[in-house]
Design brief:
InterPro entries: K/Na/Ca-exchanger, NaCa_Exmemb, NCX_ion-bd_dom_sf. Its main location: membrane. Pfam families: Na_Ca_ex. The protein has 13 helices and four strands. It is mostly helical. It has a single domain, classed as NCX, central ion-binding region (A middle domain of Talin 1, Up-down Bundle). The strands form two sheets. The chain has a two-stranded antiparallel sheet. The protein has a two-stranded antiparallel sheet with strand order 2-3. Helix 2 crosses helix 8 and helix 8 runs antiparallel to helix 9. The two termini are 26 Å apart.
Length: 327
């Protein structure tokens, strides 16, 4: 019972903290005239991925490798299949050519990198697959390259001074810098405290049910920590800002795979354990489907039928996980 209380309290703190951090950070970023796409790829994506960061790092520190890796793999699957799927069902998502040719391939690359690292036992003829500290450093280097490219893009696509959209945004009430800074600090505090309680609750529930940390990470934890991305993308779609919605998901996936897993692995090497090829191949397949839908059908637009298919595939994957656990 106490584990469930920890889980609920932790998730509440995480969600509130992520919301405060995102609002404060986005307000600061937009004062510098950064575009919706760049804000989505960086500030919003990082803010909404903060729950995954806290939980994976805490899990690595506490020795729960399955929870750390399962959280990232499950969150990226949820991001791509459910968040993009549901967002497309609300409003078809138009994908910029630059996103299709530059950012989306990085999502696929991050999934393929995890697949290769998850098969290190086969490739290196060792006893088990482990995400080593060297692997973690490599993932962080990939992330540094992505950030360098993103900020170069930010400088090149700032909104012009005479842009009507920029003028309209400037007329809206803006969060004062002092309040934005307080939101960032309060958000970080909520994330840290919530992450600690959430990991304790999730690990306790896994032990009580007799299932692995990896399964809890792939399902309950992944869904819970992806709620900020889901909320941010749905609101962006309703408000007609597809750049923010798709940038949020792409940025979160890259942040999860490269930065979060890289950081967690540097803290402590992470055995893949029960995170197997089915899970990693499912992530690669989802990433490839994301790119295909954005590129081929109805040029650079993810349609409602495609969104329904993506959500249905996630339901099928989750049903398979549950069936394998019950068996």
């Amino acid at each position: 019972m106490l584990d469930i209380v920890y889980l609920i309290i932790g998730l509440a703190l995480i969600l509130f903290g992520a919301n405060w951090l995102t609002d404060g950070s986005a307000a600061i970023a937009r004062r510098f005239g950064i575009s919706d796409l760049i804000v989505g790829l960086t500030v919003v994506a990082f803010g909404t991925s903060a729950p995954e960061l806290v939980i994976s790092v805490m899990s690595a520190i506490n020795g729960s490798a399955g929870l750390a890796i399962g959280n990232v793999v499950g969150s990226n699957l949820f991001n791509i299949l459910v968040i993009i799927g549901v967002t497309a069902m609300i409003r078809p998502i138009a994908v910029d050519r630059s996103v299709m040719t530059n950012e989306l391939p990085l999502v696929l690359l991050s999934s393929l990198a995890l697949l290769a690292m998850g098969n290190s036992a086969t490739l290196d003829a060792t006893s088990s697959s482990v995400l080593t500290r060297v692997d973690g450093i490599m993932l962080l280097l990939f992330f540094a390259i992505f950030m360098r490219y993103t900020f170069a893009q930010a400088r090149s696509i700032r909104q012009p001074q005479d842009d009507p959209a920029a003028d309209a945004a400037a007329q809206k009430p803006q969060i004062p810098m002092a309040k934005a800074s307080l939101l960032v600090i309060a958000g970080l505090a909520g994330l840290i405290a919530g992450g600690d309680r959430f990991v304790a609750g999730a690990s306790g529930i896994a032990a009580a049910l007799g299932v692995s940390d990896a399964l809890i990470g792939l399902t309950i934890v992944a869904m819970g920590t992806s709620l900020p991305e889901l909320a941010a993308s749905i609101v962006a779609a309703i408000k007609g800002r597809p750049g923010l919605a798709i940038g949020n998901v792409i940025g979160s996936c890259i942040f999860n795979a490269f930065f979060i897993l890289g950081t967690a692995a540097v803290i402590r090497p992470l055995p893949f354990g029960s995170i197997g090829n089915v899970d990693l191949l499912a992530l690669c397949g989802a990433s490839l489907l994301f790119w295909i839908f954005a590129r081929i059908y109805r040029v650079r637009t993810i349609t409602r039928p495609e969104g329904i298919l993506m959500a249905a595939l996630y339901i099928a994957y989750t049903a398979w996980l549950i069936a394998m656990t019950i068996r």
